[in-house]
Write a structure and sequence with these properties.
Its EC number is 2.7.11.-, 2.7.4.-. By secondary structure, the protein is α/β, with parallel strands linked by helices. The chain has 9 helices and 19 strands. It has 2 domains: about 130 residues, 3-Layer(aba) Sandwich (Udp-n-acetylmuramoylalanyl-d-glutamate--2,6- Diaminopimelate Ligase, Chain: A, domain 1); about 160 residues, 3-Layer(aba) Sandwich (Rossmann fold), CATH 3.40.50. The termini are far apart.
Length: about 325
């Protein structure tokens, strides 16, 4: 899993989430790292009570905090501000276009803590920056495989190189399904427990077919054949057929695999000449949808079989 962090400069550079941030002071601290999506309003920490301060979180100063700093004894607040700034705080952000008093900027400057400002109301800004941090700080990983959208189900095809993942995905595209990524899938965890897959930018829309080379799915089949990103719902692992191995023939037991702490339904499909993998994957997606609606065909068959055996034991029909 890749470790993700952001710098304070990344916050200033945002032009997508509308944070509307500007630097008030603390240029030297723009390389401070942010690793948590949670925020804190320091509140009592400004009075000197720092027991519950979380310095790993961005500290938000709104109208209440700035009014407090401007109204009470400056000498006392100066000492409190210096004590607060001794913690390794990544940055302070002041909302509503307010400007903190000079002694506070002096205390942050002594410790190299940047102070940023925004014109947003505190509640609005907290909503915006929380969304920004949650999106940018989510756990991520890269997996070797192919991600396709089959009937709205995000199917991640995995298996060793040359097993036929891309050829299977191509068959699915010809059937009207959609490619998300071939060869390498960038996966991001979306809270609370979803995985979002998307292509690596350099190979977006591209697919490698041995004997043909690199083909562009968007150019060949149009925009309806591709997707920018997709929630991963099901992992299908393609393996070489082994005549000495027993494969699941009933499907009563559901298997899962863990990716970034999220349990994902997992199927193992043996590959050998003559098997139509595209049709099998499509049926797997349809079966996944049925299970989501509460119908499990294998377990239904098992229940009916057991009920029949209980009502009419084996041998009763033999004269």
């Amino acid at each position: 899993m890749d470790t993700i962090s952001l710098s304070i400069q990344d916050l200033l550079d945002d032009d997508e989430y509308g944070l509307d941030l500007s630097l008030i002071s603390g240029t030297a601290g723009l390389d401070h790292r942010v690793t948590s999506s949670r925020l804190q309003k320091p509140g009592l920490a400004l009075t000197g009570y720092t027991s519950h301060l979380h310095p790993d979180r961005i500290q938000i100063l709104g109208n209440t905090e700035i009014s407090y700093l401007n109204q009470l004894d400056e000498e006392l607040l100066r000492e409190n501000a210096r004590a607060l700034c001794r913690f390794p705080i990544s940055c302070f952000i002041v909302t509503k276009g307010l400007v903190p008093p000079p002694f506070f900027l002096e205390a942050t400057g002594e410790q190299g803590i940047p102070v940023l400002g925004t014109n947003h109301q505190s509640s609005t800004f907290i909503s915006l920056v929380t969304k920004f941090l949650e999106e940018r700080l989510l756990p991520t990983t890269h997996l070797h495989g192919v991600l396709v959208d089959v009937l709205g189900v995000g199917v991640l095809l995995t298996g060793k190189s040359g097993i036929g993942k891309s050829e299977c995905a191509l068959e699915l595209i010809i059937r009207g399904h959609r490619l998300v990524s071939d060869d390498m899938v960038f996966i991001k965890k979306k809270m609370p427990a979803a995985l979002v897959g998307q292509p690596v930018e350099q190979i977006q829309y591209l697919m490698e077919i041995r004997g043909l080379g690199i083909i562009n799915i968007k150019d060949l089949y149009g925009v309806s054949s591709i997707r920018e990103k997709k929630i991963v719902d099901l992992m299908v692992e393609l393996v070489e057929w082994n005549p000495n191995q027993e494969y699941d023939r009933l499907g009563v037991d559901d298997h899962t695999v863990s990716i970034l702490g999220v349990e994902l339904p997992h199927l193992t499909i043996p590959v050998r000449p003559g098997r139509n993998l595209g049709a099998i994957i499509e049926v797997a997606a349809r079966n996944f949808l049925l299970k989501g609606m509460g119908y499990h065909s294998a377990r239904d068959f098992q229940a009916r079989l057991l009920a029949r055996m209980e009502s009419r034991p084996l041998g009763d029909e033999v004269e």
